[in-house]
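As a representative case, the lines below give one protein's residues and fold tokens.
***
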Amino acid sequence: MKNITKIIWLWVLILLPLICYSADSTVEKLPPSSPASESIFYVVDKPFTSGASDNRLSLGNLLLWMATQDWTFSGAVTLPVITLADASTLTLPAAAVDEGWTTGLFGCGPDGTCAWTNIADLEATIPISGEITDEQVACWESSETPGTNKLKSCGTKTTDNSTATHLLCKDDSGEIENCTLAGLAISGTTSPTITVESIPANATVNAVGELTVDTTTDQFKYYGGAVRVLPYIQYLSFVIPAPAEADDINIMKAPYGMTILGINCIVQGTTSATGQLQECDSAGANCADLDSDITCDADGAADDGTLTDSTIASGAWVRWKTTSLSGTPTFLTVTVRYSVVAD
């Protein structure tokens, strides 16, 4: 009897592990009451394991698998808040653009609250000042009063390029106007070119910044503190005390090409001095007469009005040559008028 009992317990000990393993393979495991964070997802029949005794699936593996799938939502998905990298949040609007709108503008405020704005409502909030029609330029008129800034018409586009010299500018009262610009010319149609016109001739100069060319006096006039002029005629004047025959005096080395316009002379004392101008080389030698001699007396004299050679080269010396004297004049004064040759 004792041997039979021992045999029965021996079979129980052999078969019990096999019975338990069979139950473990067919009965679904329930999750633990307090699962660890890395074990919160569970599946049945161990689809991602081979022979493992645990049905848990890690979150990392699940996310990798989800990233390879196409997702179709047949129901509502609610994402009320999005957290950004700096821990700030965006609160999404509760619904999409209103079906009655043509277009909605999406934006978020400083507090992270996002909302849709109807474009039509936005356009209606921009105030317009005055009538704006085709081919007019609109500009923004600012105001110190909040909410009163507005768009207004600031001038009509000029289409005639043959006379178009207009540009938007601000007048004395602060208004933007279509201004006419003197001294500019616009040419071309598809790619207009703005060029600066020549200085006006014989214009009235009576305000600061104005200028003109006086063709009567051949002067450049401009207004600074008053009307000023830059004459093209320049002059050189010199005095020879007690002139003597054969006084040949270098009076100037030409800093640029010049044209001698006229020569005037006069003596003090009796009676006269005769002489003329010469052009010498850069060393003051090889001098040549510019014209015939002038007899300078007590009431003054001048050249005959047409110099034989009136051109002075840049770098040349200009010399006065005294040819002869009558009496004993005490002073001889000579004035030479000339102009600079344009390079």
User: Anything to note?
Assistant: Helices lie at 2-26, 59-67, 119-124. The first strand starts at residue 41 and ends at 42. The two ends are 145 Å apart (CA to CA). The chain has a mean pLDDT of 76.
